[in-house]
Amino acid sequence: MAAVNLQQSVRDLVQNCRRFGVVPTFRDLEYRALNKVLPLRIFKGMTAVLDDVDRTLFDRAGFAVRIAGAAELRAATARPEWAGEMSRAFVDQALAKGDECVGIFDGDALTSIGWYARTPTPVTDSLSLRFDPSWTYMYKGFTLKPWRGKRLHGIGMTFALQHYVERGARGLISYVEFNNLKSLRSVENMGYRVFGDIYLARLKDREIFWSTPGCRPYRFHLARNG
């Protein structure tokens, strides 16, 4: 069994090197190794504006893209395919806060979501992400497995970008964790630009966090709830 696991690990390493490059792949390994000693998360802050977005993502390829209604979202939480990703309590809390969800529908089926906020948004039970409110914060993007590979996340993001810019936003602001190589590649291809990092470490029961200087112009930082 150990030999089989080792072979699979080597295959995964080679595949990631080919797909994402040697340097990012080994940085991911270093990050994972460090987290066995010191729990640490690194969030790469980024923005997207209309001038930089991949224009092909405005082609919705037969899907319906819109701000999902409360009834649609609450109905989705009762379906097995969505229950693990989007609970009724989360939907109720997000809507009460004023957040909106861009949904992508294939017929009547909700296939992909992305949530958008203009106010501080929880990241953990004790911390919230704060940012310049002239930007719209994108979070909790998710696509159901049968519809992955169709660039639905990017299609939803470009819809949201245009929607919120028309309502006065400068663009979208978001983050991707340091070693989420697939998502980093995806958002870079969409047109996002990285501006800085947030670090979050846990020492025993204490959370320590700080932001790099590139985050300051965007007022992009963590703060304790309450």
Keywords:
globular; 7 helices; single chain; alpha+beta
Structure description:
This protein has 226 residues and is α+β, with helices and mostly antiparallel strands. Helices cover 35% and strands 31% of the residues. It is built from seven helices and eleven strands. It has an eight-stranded mixed β-sheet with strand order 2-3-4-7-8-1-9-10, with helices on both faces. It has a three-stranded antiparallel β-sheet with strand order 5-6-11, with no helix packed on it. Helix 6 links the parallel strand 7 and strand 8. The mean pLDDT is 87.
Question: How are the secondary structure elements laid out?
Answer:
Blueprint: H1 2-20, H2 22-35, E1 40-48, E2 64-67, H3 70-76, H4 80-83, H5 88-97, E3 100-106, E4 109-117, E5 121-122, E6 127-130, E7 136-143, H6 152-165, E8 172-177, H7 181-190, E9 193-203, E10 206-211, E11 221-224
Parallel strand pairs: 7-8
Antiparallel strand pairs: 1-8, 1-9, 2-3, 3-4, 4-7, 5-6, 6-11, 9-10
Helix pairs in contact: 1-2
